[in-house]
Design a protein that fits this description.
Elements (H helix, E strand, L loop, with lengths): L7 H27 L5 H7 L1 H16 L4 H12 L2 H5 L4 H19 L3 H7 L3 H6 L8 H20 L9 H21 L13 H5 L11 H5 L4 H12 L7 H20 L9 H4 L3 H4 L1 H21 L7 H12 L14 H13 L3 H4 L1 H27 L11 H15 L3 H28 L3 H10 L7
Length: 463
């Protein structure tokens, strides 16, 4: 299977399967909504952004050295997250959430001395991609997160490389700032992406027909019970490959603006920034989804690698899941819609101990099927209530009109953003070529040195 291989072909297969899963779920939601195949093309078009987000998140987890199997399951959870699907009501923010993992991947790969020379020249372009939809809150949050990762890289990064990365990181940040300013000034996707405002209740209750106020069950749907289950498993096992405290802080920070918006009035203390920044309470949940997903991937990977390490963690987690699952309807304002949360926790509690009985390989197959099904049900609950305005066949001539509007928009844009972005591409390309030429002589020993080594070697050691 492509999920267990190690080559490039297996990785491409995993990405194709991931995209197919997202498209199938969106098409199923279209059939559930319209009852016919007339809108399959439109549903497939609406699946492009979630599928792109899942693909880039898969790459981000692979850059963090997570296994292909775990990266696939976590990327599917990211792409089919009810929060990400609900953000279709704010397409700029949804696209920013889909592109942000690429910026995080670039920063993560710069922490690897073997990959730094290849990725550092293009990091500036990757940092600017979350601003391709325009000025978005998620783009700003992604840049803050990348900046914190860069600070960590400069202060306590891997120093095994001969050249300190500080000057390169400064150049990459400068190119990223110029590229981001150019992209924001151009706003190339403005003809296709509208600007809408979302409140925190609209995001939390995307699966409900109306807004019922904030409740625990709605908050649990942001990362989803599957990711929460495996994140708790990793925390209880004290996983060794991820900074648990840092990613817990990221996940907690994502929920803070929405909670403050609900509890503290806008005129409290004279000024409340969480009310002043547009869409911050709704879009900051991306940090919660990101932090829990990273912890879940690390926790599941650690369990599948050494399931007998800290063997008491799994029984405690199963007991907690069985205890908390029946209580979810009592902390929800719409208990009849929260049965997928209860069923997911109970099914995972029954499924996890089976790894001893069926073997770890068969357990992986069984777990993959169960997780994909458990992630599909909440997504199908969101889609009929959400009804994205883009869902539906485009009228005749609509595509032609969009192209004409895009050309007029490009013609009205100032010229300096084009020059700035072209300069960033040229500088990044020259930087990458220079790094490539420097790496080539170091990778191959001179022929004379090889000949001297062979002459001085003992006869049995000659090749």
């Amino acid at each position: 299977m492509s999920l267990y291989g190690t080559g490039r072909r297996e990785g491409i297969g995993s990405v194709l399967v991931l995209g197919a899963v997202v498209v199938i779920v969106l098409v199923a939601g279209s059939l559930q909504l319209f009852g016919s195949l007339a809108n399959v093309a439109a549903a497939s078009r609406d699946a492009i952004v979630p599928a792109l987000g899942g693909t880039l998140f898969y790459r981000f987890l692979r850059a963090m050295r997570r296994s292909r199997y775990v990266s696939f399951l976590t990327a599917v959870a990211y792409a089919l997250s009810p929060w990400l699907l609900t953000m279709a009501l704010a397409p700029r923010e949804q696209l920013a959430a889909a592109l942000a993992p690429l910026a995080l991947e670039a920063v993560t790969r710069c922490d690897r001395p073997s990959q730094r020379r290849s990725w550092l020249p293009w990091t500036g372009v990757c940092l600017a991609l979350p601003f391709l939809p325009g000025v978005t809150t998620i783009g700003g949050l992604a840049m803050l997160l990348c900046a914190s990762l860069f600070v960590r890289l400069v202060t306590c990064g891997d120093r095994s490389d001969a050249t300190p990365p500080a000057w390169g990181i400064g150049a990459a940040v400068a190119l990223g700032a110029l590229a981001a300013a150019s992209v924001i000034a151009l706003d190339p996707l403005a003809p296709w992406l509208r600007t809408d405002q979302l409140g925190p209740l609209e995001v939390l209750h995307g699966h409900q027909a109306g807004s019922y106020g904030i409740d625990t069950a709605a908050v649990l749907r942001v990362p989803g019970p599957v990711l929460l289950f495996f994140a708790l498993l990793g925390i209880l096992r004290r996983q060794r490959h991820t900074a648990i405290g840092s990613w817990l802080a990221v996940a907690t920070a994502g929920a803070v603006p929405a909670v403050l918006c609900m509890l503290v009035p806008a005129d409290a203390f004279g000024f409340a920034f969480w009310h002043a920044i547009e869409q911050l309470p709704a879009t900051a949940w991306w940090l919660t989804l990101l932090g829990v997903a990273v912890l879940a991937a690390a926790g599941l990977d650690d369990f599948l690698d050494l399931p007998l390490r800290r063997r008491t963690a799994l029984p405690w987690l199963l007991a907690l899941a069985v205890l908390m699952a029946p209580m979810i309807p009592f902390v929800s304002t719409a208990p009849d819609l929260e049965w997928p949360l209860t069923a997911t926790l109970l099914l995972l509690a029954v499924l996890m101990p089976l790894w001893r009985r069926v073997g770890i390989l068969q357990f992986k197959n069984l777990l993959a099927i169960a997780v994909v099904v458990l992630l599909t049900v909440p997504a199908l609950q969101v889609l009929p209530v959400l009804v994205p305005p883009s869902l539906g066949a485009a009228p005749a001539g609509e595509v032609t009109r969009w192209v004409r509007v895009a050309m007029l928009h490009a013609a009205d844009a100032p010229s300096w953003p084009y020059a700035g972005f072209a300069f960033v591409l040229l500088a990044s390309g020259v930087w990458w070529l220079f790094a490539f030429w420097r790496r080539m002589p170091a990778s191959n020993a001179p022929p004379k040195a090889k000949a001297a080594i062979v002459r001085k070697a003992r006869p049995p050691q000659r090749s």
